[in-house]
Amino acid sequence: MRILIAEDDPISCRILTNNLTKWGHEVVVTRNGNDAWRALCARDAPSLAILDRVMPDVDGIEICRHLREADSPVHVILLTSLNRREDLLEGLEAGADDYLTKPLDAHELRARLQAAQRILELQESLRQRVRELEQAIEERKAAEEALRNLSLTDQLTGLYNYRGFINLAEHHLKIARREMHPSLLIYADMDGLKEINDTLGHRAGSTAIAAAGQILRNTFRDCDIIGRLGGDEFAVLVPSIKEPESAKVIERLRHNVSEYNEMSGHKFIIALSIGAVEIDHEHAWGIEDQMARADEVMYREKREKKGHEKAQEAQKRPA
Amino acid sequence: MSLTATETPAVDLAILAIYDDAQIEGEPDFVVELIDLYLNEVPRLFDTIRKAVFNKDRSTAKRAAHSLRGSSGNLGVLQMATIAGELEHLENDYSTVAPELLRSLENEFERVKEILNAERQRRSA
Question: N or C: which end of chain A has fewer CB within 10 A?
Answer without folding.
Answer: C
